[in-house]
Each structure stands twice: as structure tokens, then as C-alpha cells.
């Protein structure tokens, strides 16, 4: 039986999970792949901490370059993270004509086009199933399973930290700060949570998925990104009253000459299955012409779910090695020469529905002034909702709009805040439902 040698860079939580699966599932992997997967060497700066993994037959060293340069190693698994040294190691590995498996979405979102080109030049595989959605096979679905489909759109919950926080706020009435603290205590959120709660982690994943879905270059820079820090109990409560749930969504849609790619808090109707994806779980719905809507659901992070996705890539590459082939499936699902530069729609040109909440002064004419400014900007109001005076003496006014253009919404809000009708900044949450699809 052929032996395929693997080198692992990074022995953190996910790295330990990968080593654990390679060791404990050795017989199952051999039966399914038809070859022995040997974890030959692990490189990590910390080689003394016990990870609870039996490493008999595996060398543990501190020098990653030694692993990369080992002529016996066929596949390098990069689980260091970050965008500096990990990039250097992956580029060196590809130049050494070795296959790479990574879970590094930030690196791929920022430098993926470069890495794809280098992998193509050296005719080796670059695989990254674990970079988006944890154990959900969304990369394989877009790259292989849906190959005969035009992908019309994607809508996904791709960050477990934000989903846990919003679930706690919705179900328990927690404030954002309290829900975040609980997420940190449970290990769902980092001590410095900005990458998650400000939407950037989700944007990294959307940049990768958009390239796979639409045959475009990876383009992180033009994705609109908003986080969840400004979502408050009032907005959660109003959403419930309207039959909606607020989720941080990654939204991608294909149009004739451009795509939409945006990340922001979104109101979705409770009839949408995504509204019931709670706590730290992830899910993505993919709309395609032949299949209709397909939905994937699963753990978006964690040691074993992520390690499982890494192993799926290792298995694919191992099968290619056994068959004497490589790059059977193009890195981004399209041969490099067919990948296009497709522009992302500027946010100002977006048309969708909106939830608007104002803290209005309690005096006559306020509602007519706000409505008048919206009307001047061709914004049609679907409904108006008003609740009693709050502790500060203001009256919360909520409006749901029909389809409106983002630029007009922003222009109207800028004019409204200049009046003496409202206090503070209005809250804007975009709505995704049948009227906007």
C-alpha cells in the first residue's frame, strides 16, 4: 500500500484535531483512500505542551522550513494562521511543488489570487475546504457538486461568534456587551473580538465563496462590511413584532455585469430557515438555476469540525496522488484563464428594503417632517410603528420601506439628522425577503 507523507505547520487547536484524526482514523482513512496517510512531521514553536494526541512515529520540531523542504513529504498542511509568515511558508511550499491544504481564510481573502497563480504555475493543488463554514462542505459544493449550475445567489451565516451573540440577544434579551462576554467565557469569541463582531471574518469567507460561485477573482476590498455592535434590544424587539429575526449575513448575488457582495446585520422573515440557525452554528443557502435552493448547516468552527474539513482536502489530494494526477479540479473551480474580473456593485447602487428606527422628539410635526424627507428622496414607506415615550423623553419611531436605493436612503438620513426632530443617529437595518430577492 502506498504511503503518502504529510507535514503539519501549526499545532494549535485545529492542528491537534488534524493530528488526532490522522492517528485515530488511520484504518478508516486507509480503507477509504487506498493509501496510508503518515503524519511524518509537525512544526510548531511550542513542542513541549501536551495536546493529548499520541504522536508515535511523528517527529515534532520547531523549524517549519525543514518540513517544507523534506523531499519525502507530499502534502503540507498550514494551520499557523495570519497573513505574514503563513503566506511565506505556503509560497515556498508551492514553489517546492508540494500540495498545500490550509484553513487560512484571511490569507486567502487577501492574497488568494497570488497563491492560486503560484499553485497553477507549479502544477500543484491548493485546497481550503476548512476556510469557509467549518465542516460544511460549501467549497466542494460550489466547486464540484453544483458545476452545471449558474449560481444566482448565496446567503449565509458564516460566523459563529456573531450568531451566538445575536441568538442570546434575541432569546434572552441580553445586551450586546453581556452576550459577547458570555461568548468569550464559552470560547466562542476571542479576547479581542473585532475580527468577528465587526464582520471582517465573514467578509473573508464571502470573498472566497464569491470567487468560487461566479468565476471571479477574489476581491475583498470592494465588499461592504458592517458588524453587529449597534444592534440593540429595541431592534431585536421590533424585529420580533414584525415576524423577523436579525442575523449577520454574507450576501452574494449575480447580476448581468456585476455581483453584489455585502456583509451586514439583516432582517429575515421567520419563514426563512436561516432565521432558525441559532447559537454558534453556521448555515448557507445557495440559489442555483438547476437545483433551486440548497442549504448547508453545521458547526462553523471548533477543533474536530474544522479538522474534518482539513482531512477532506488531504483525502482528495491523496486520491489524486494515487491516480497519478494533480489539479484535477481547478483551485477556484474554473481554469485560471477563465477567471474574470467582475465588479462588485457599489453599495450606493444597492436596491433593497429597509428598517429605520428614529429616536424622535415628542412634539407635533415630527412624523410628517421625517416622512416628507423620505418622500423627497423617492423612498416609499410600507409601514410606520410608534411606541410610547422612553426614559429619555424621546419616542421611538420605526419605519419599514418598500424597495429603495441605498444612496437615497443615506441622503435622506443625513438630512433628517440635521433637523431638530431626532436625537442621535438613526438605526438602519437592511431587509432580505421575497420582495428583495
Automatic annotation (TrEMBL):
Bilayer-crossing residues are none
Q: Which GO terms describe its molecular function?
A: homoserine dehydrogenase activity; NADP binding
Does the keyword Cytoplasm belong to this entry?
A: no
Per UniProt, which keywords does this protein have? Amino-acid biosynthesis, Methionine biosynthesis, NADP, Oxidoreductase, Threonine biosynthesis
Query: If you read the UniProt record, what top EC class would you report for this enzyme, in one word?
Result: oxidoreductase
Pathway entry: Amino-acid biosynthesis; L-methionine biosynthesis via de novo pathway; L-homoserine from L-aspartate: step 3/3; Amino-acid biosynthesis; L-threonine biosynthesis; L-threonine from L-aspartate: step 3/5
Q: What is its EC number?
A: 1.1.1.3
Q: Give residues annotated as binding L-homoserine.
A: 190
Annotated residues that bind NADPH are located at 105
Coiled coil regions, renumbered to chain: none
User: What family does the Swiss-Prot or TrEMBL record give for this protein?
Assistant: Belongs to the homoserine dehydrogenase family.
Entry protein name: Homoserine dehydrogenase
Q: What is this organism's lineage?
A: Bacteria, Pseudomonadati, Thermodesulfobacteriota, Desulfobacteria, Desulfobacterales
Amino acid at each position: 500500500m502506498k504511503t503518502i507523507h504529510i507535514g503539519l505547520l501549526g499545532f494549535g487547536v485545529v492542528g491537534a484535531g488534524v493530528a488526532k484524526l490522522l492517528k485515530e482514523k488511520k484504518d478508516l482513512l486507509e480503507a477509504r483512500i487506498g493509501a496510508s496517510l503518515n503524519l511524518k512531521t509537525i512544526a510548531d514553536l511550542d513542542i513541549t505542551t501536551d495536546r493529548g494526541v499520541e504522536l508515535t512515529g511523528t517527529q515534532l520540531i520547531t523549524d517549519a522550513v525543514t518540513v517544507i523542504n523534506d523531499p519525502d513529504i507530499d502534502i503540507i498542511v498550514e494551520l499557523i494562521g495570519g497573513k505574514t509568515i503563513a503566506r511565506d511558508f505556503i509560497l515556498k511550499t508551492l514553489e517546492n511543488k508540494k500540495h498545500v491544504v490550509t484553513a487560512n481564510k484571511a490569507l486567502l481573502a487577501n492574497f488568494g489570487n497570488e497563491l492560486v497563480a503560484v499553485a497553477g504555475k507549479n502544477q500543484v493543488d491548493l485546497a481550503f475546504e476548512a476556510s469557509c463554514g467549518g465542516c460544511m462542505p460549501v467549497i466542494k459544493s460550489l466547486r464540484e457538486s453544483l458545476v452545471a449550475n449558474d449560481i444566482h445567489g448565496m446567503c449565509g451565516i458564516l460566523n459563529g461568534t456573531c450568531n451566538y451573540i445575536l441568538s442570546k440577544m434575541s432569546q434572552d434579551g441580553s445586551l450586546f456587551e453581556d452576550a459577547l462576554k458570555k461568548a468569550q467565557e464559552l470560547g466562542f469569541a476571542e479576547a479581542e473580538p473585532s475580527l468577528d463582531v465587526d464582520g471582517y471574518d465573514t467578509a473573508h469567507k464571502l470573498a472566497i465563496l464569491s470567487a468560487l460561485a461566479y468565476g471571479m477573482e477574489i476581491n475583498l476590498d470592494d465588499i461592504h462590511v458592517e458588524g453587529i455592535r449597534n444592534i440593540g434590544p429595541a431592534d431585536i424587539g421590533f424585529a420580533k413584532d414584525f415576524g423577523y429575526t436579525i442575523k449577520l449575513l454574507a450576501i452574494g448575488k449575480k447580476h448581468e455585469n456585476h455581483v453584489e457582495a455585502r456583509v451586514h446585520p439583516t432582517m429575515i422573515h421567520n419563514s426563512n430557515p436561516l432565521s432558525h440557525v441559532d447559537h454558534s452554528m453556521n448555515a448557507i443557502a445557495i440559489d442555483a438555476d438547476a437545483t433551486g435552493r440548497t442549504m448547508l448547516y453545521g458547526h462553523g468552527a471548533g477543533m474536530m469540525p474544522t479538522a474534518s474539513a482539513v482531512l477532506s482536502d488531504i483525502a482528495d489530494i491523496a486520491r489524486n496522488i494515487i491516480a497519478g494526477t494533480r489539479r484535477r479540479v481547478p483551485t477556484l473551480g474554473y481554469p485560471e484563464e477563465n477567471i474574470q474580473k467582475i465588479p462588485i456593485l457599489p453599495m450606493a447602487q444597492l436596491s433593497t428594503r429597509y428598517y429605520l428606527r428614529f429616536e424622535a422628539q415628542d412634539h407635533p410635526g415630527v412624523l410628517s417632517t421625517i416622512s416628507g424627507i423620505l418622500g423627497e428622496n423617492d423612498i416609499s414607506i410600507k409601514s410606520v410603528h410608534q411606541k410610547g415615550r422612553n426614559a429619555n423623553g424621546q419616542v421611538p419611531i420605526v419605519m419599514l420601506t418598500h424597495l429603495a436605493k441605498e444612496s437615497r436612503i443615506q441622503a435622506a438620513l443625513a438630512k433628517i439628522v440635521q433637523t431638530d426632530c431626532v436625537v442621535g443617529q438613526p438605526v438602519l437595518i437592511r431587509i432580505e425577503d421575497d420582495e428583495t430577492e
